[in-house]
Amino acid sequence: MALTEFELIMLDNGEVALQRSGSDKALVRIKFSGEVLDYLGGKHLEVAKNMMDAGLQAVFEINEERAPQAEEGDEKRHTLH
Considering the domain boundaries, does residue 44 fall inside one? Predict the structure, then answer.
């Protein structure tokens, strides 16, 4: 399976977005309120990155749970000469 690279970008409206590298379509957007921006004191990009990292990790774990698991005895053996 090919790995997809993602990037975080800052949109013109101040939102932080996640998109596939080479694409201009945002997959996820995060918008912080003015109050939160003030509270974070300029660290909102770091917070957004951690939020996106946690979300992507959750997606990978969900996909692993959905993948069919090989049962004992299902393993095929090949003899190489």
Answer: yes
